[in-house]
Amino acid sequence: MSGADALEFWFEFASTYSYPAAMRIEERARAAGVPLRWKAFLLGPIFAAQGWNDSPFNLYPVKSRYMWRDLERVCAALELPMRRPSRFPRNGLRAARIACWFEDEPWLPAFVRAVYDANFARDADIAEPQVLAACLARAGAPAEALDAAGDDAARAKLRARVDEAVALGIFGAPSFVVGGELFWGNDRLEDALAWARGARPDRARA
Amino acid sequence: MSGADALEFWFEFASTYSYPAAMRIEERARAAGVPLRWKAFLLGPIFAAQGWNDSPFNLYPVKSRYMWRDLERVCAALELPMRRPSRFPRNGLRAARIACWFEDEPWLPAFVRAVYDANFARDADIAEPQVLAACLARAGAPAEALDAAGDDAARAKLRARVDEAVALGIFGAPSFVVGGELFWGNDRLEDALAWARGARPDRARA
């Protein structure tokens, strides 16, 4: 369909700015003619390696206050519903194992959006199996997908995925990778899509 | 000229993303019909209060690697020259005292741009008086402005400015304040200008 490079979308279900990115990326990538790869991963182990035992937003209250207000503005501009989760960050481990294991299934994008909607629009606990079962049902996925998340193979695949994120220099979410080029943050999606289509600003002049 | 609210531009001379913001903000604000207020401040005391004794970029090398590459892309897209400073962060205290004390002078914007150009395009040490003297000369400012930076009144004004930043919830640079609304980051400049012109996306639906 096009000669564009593929765009990898690295997302973490607990990540606030991954929410608007996840809700709009499939449509934007399709409009740009850019093939999309969904890469569920976990930030927890990456933050822990930097010495953080919690979301950096919880560690820095002033930044947290700003982030929630900014997210509200970003979602309003996209006409996305947003309700601040009563607990943050939610534990997205099980959801990530499902999304990582079934990443090539046709229902995967709808499942990912359903989980983000549960977390950031409905204040549902995405660690709960019944919440994830409802997300799978909304996406038209088989109910058995829930159990597959507990398999050793699914666990190992997600662990390898986190190692891959570290190797790519990923330190936050959402991140976008095109070729070897890394873009961080929901507001870099358009730049990443342009890069995938071959846009290359001149190197900075020294 | 317009009914737009004023936009406060909070900048720190050592801050990397303040560089592209400082180089383009006067033109963008004029085009948008938004009155602009220049607010030089210091991030050092704010970072220290969060327990950081250095730039967070230096504390987190993975994030630092990304930031320099991203800044290179951002500057290239704006056709701004960029040379990574051989020392980061540079000490911008003296420059900030000048910019804070003389913030209503007609030469102030040109001086601010000259200092950013020295730091991020010429790898000059903006802590050095002779570098700042050249920046003042480029901006058409009186040479005596350099000495004013050492006065008690100029020191006190900058200290009060940092207190004001904290009171506004500012935690990084560049920041933009419109009414009580805070926007953080070079890539929020357009949103802040739109806000000043009265754009108010609907509140997020719960």
Keywords:
alpha+beta; 206 residues; homodimer; four-stranded mixed β-sheet; 10 helices
What does this structure look like?
Two copies of one chain form a homodimer. By secondary structure, chain A is an alpha+beta fold. Helix content of chain A is 50%, strand content 9%. The first copy, chain A, has helices spanning 18-32, 44-49, 56-59, 61-77, 93-101, 108-120, 129-138, 145-148, 152-167, 189-196; strands at residues 7-11, 36-40, 175-178, 181-184. Chain A has a four-stranded mixed beta sheet with strand order 2-1-3-4, with helices on both faces. In chain A, helix 1 links the parallel strand 1 (7-11) and strand 2. In chain A, helix 1 packs antiparallel against helix 6 (108-120), helix 1 packs parallel to helix 10 (189-196) and helix 5 crosses helix 9 (152-167). Chain A is globular. The mean pLDDT of chain A is 93. The A-B interface holds A 50, 60, 62-63, 65-66, 69-70, 72-73, 75-77, 79-83, 169, 171-172, 182-184, 187-188, 191, 201-206 and B 50, 60, 62-63, 65-66, 69-70, 72-73, 75-77, 79-83, 169, 171-172, 182-184, 187-188, 191, 201-206.
